[in-house]
Amino acid sequence: MLTRLLNFGRNKLRFDDMSAREILALAITSEEDDARIYRTFAGEIRETYPDSAKIFDEMATEEDQHRRWLIDVFREKFGETIPLIRREHVAGFYSRKPIWLMKNRSVDEMRKQAADMEAQAHRFYSAAAKRTSDATIRKLLGDLARAEAGHLGAAMNAEKHYISEDVKEAEAEAEHRQFVLTYVQPGLAGLIDGSVSTLAPIFATAFATMNPWTTFLVGLAASVGAGISMGFTEVASDDGVISGRGSPMIRGVVTGIMTTLGGLGHALPYLIPDFWTATYVAVAVVAVELAIITFIQHKYMETPWVKAMLQIVLGGALVLGAGVLIGGG
Known about the structure:
This protein is mostly helical. The chain contains 11 helices and 2 strands. It has a two-stranded parallel ribbon.
């Protein structure tokens, strides 16, 4: 491991030692990579955010033009064979995250990354132009530095030129809807199932045994079991392709975690040795859980307060009562 750390970067080119031929080759591959990233961004959001996709399409087209200019000058100066030099081949050089890792990004995150990419490109061309003595290459690199600076402004302020307030509001609404479908809805379903469905077995055990530790173990088993079951059910129920609900794995994890937490909320009080103290605390926790569920339903699912309270509080009270009656009988 130490040897690898000591040798890290030794097999890479140093920017200060690169020739004009190598700098042009690096610039060509960099422009090609950036155009590919912009087109990937555009393709991912074209159906949902067509105006923002147009921005990335135009940026990709401009990167293609830059690459053609660079190739023309390279052919004129050095011939047809362009060496493959990428950012990761140069020590201390900025790099791009692989496209396949750029998933689940919001439109704003894409815009910010585009601005960072253009700022980095501007710095590269500015530094490269200062190191080049050939007049033609120096002029091209200087022109590209200025173009990237202008492109940076476009990336940062594109929405002012292309996107009306109505479109921005529509995009924000679409992002909010996606957040609700992928995170809030599965989480709420898990929280309801974990909080309500475990009430009966936990309180039935509590009043049947009057033993806090036994009750806790039953609650723990019910909560974890319900979480695993709900998580797998969510993953298997919908792949998200047609419904647009997002990654099934994300939804499954969210559902499983919230289901488990919902059940553990009123199981944990039974770690208190005194039975009645633990029960009073558990009932108080149940009241808080039901209030939180009601709030989430009202805020994110737009369910009227009265309807949400009747659905959750009444349902929870009935399940709790059933558990107490069964355990006490």
